[in-house]
Amino acid sequence: xxxxxxxxxxxxxxxxxxxxxxxxxxxxxxxxxxxxxxxxxxxxxxxxxxxxxxxxxxxxxxxxxxxxxxxxxxxxxxxxxxxxxxxxxxxxxxxxxxxxxxxxxxxxxxxxxxxxxxxxxxxxxxxxxxxxxxxxxxxxxxxxxxxxxxxxxxxxxxxxxxxxxxxxxxxxxxxxxxxxxxxxxxxxxxxxxxxxxxxxxxxxxxxxxxxxxxxxxxxxxxxxxxxxxxxxxxxxxxxxxxxxxxxxxxxxxxxxxxxxxxxxxxxxxxxxxxxxxxxxxxxxxxxxxxxxxxxxxxxxxxxxxxxxxxxxxxxxxxxxxxxxxxxxxxxxxx
Length: 334
Description:
Strand order of the largest sheet: 3-2-1-4-7-6-8-5
Strand content: 15-25%
Radius of gyration: 22 Å
CATH class of the largest domain: Alpha Beta
Structural class: alpha/beta
Distance between the termini: 44 Å
CATH architecture of the largest domain: Alpha-Beta Complex
Mean pLDDT: 94
Largest sheet: 8 strands, mixed
CATH topology of the largest domain: Spore Coat Polysaccharide Biosynthesis Protein SpsA, Chain A
Number of strands: 15
């Protein structure tokens, strides 16, 4: 018998899309699953919808969030789950009909010590914003090339409702214990930190719905989409070498934001820019240097905080030309 898959679903005032979302679970080609819904104190018709589905299919179980918020809802659902394999699903999204089957097959190939993921597709109740399209295309490219960990400091490299993992591996990585947002990116960083292997399927298995009430659009914990504090924490735990000089490249909005963070943390660094108008200027008690000074540094570690695609290509070309290696000598933080 195939292992039981526990699908964890935090739910908050999701009446508009919840029925369609649960129906996509019921339509799965794989049948050995349980859906654990944690109702986060909804004040719309969500509770009655959940009750209805739990009565028509005993694989669907409903609990009230023991705390408040998405992390606590995930903890509540996880605590009450029984599956050997764990999956997260959002209450406003849709599964492809073979989602669980595809992810299970990928995970079986990777075995213990791996996490399975696959491609995503965004859709919208209205006009889909370009940013979501770009993010989906980027995630799907990572799945094609299986290069998730090489991009980890740019953005969350695994879609939050599109992974499957062994319970024992999830526990080893701390599951949902950390009280840190964005909870999906933090979890993915912990998978990386624990050296889990990413196994990618090439099919689209998750349909991500954008709408005006989506949590990532409205909750304060998701407003800072640079997430430099989170990135820096994992960077200094997993990459930093105190014997090597640390450099920031970029003095635009993102570079300044990262510089302020490092100043607040009393981290020593040097700051370079490819904008000649800023060379020699003092910003936040740091003198901006030309990027060309990098070649004079002894074994530097460089964080690139530049968002423009064309500029990033030029930066990578310059660093590679000077025998500096990505994810060993330099990392892109955006």
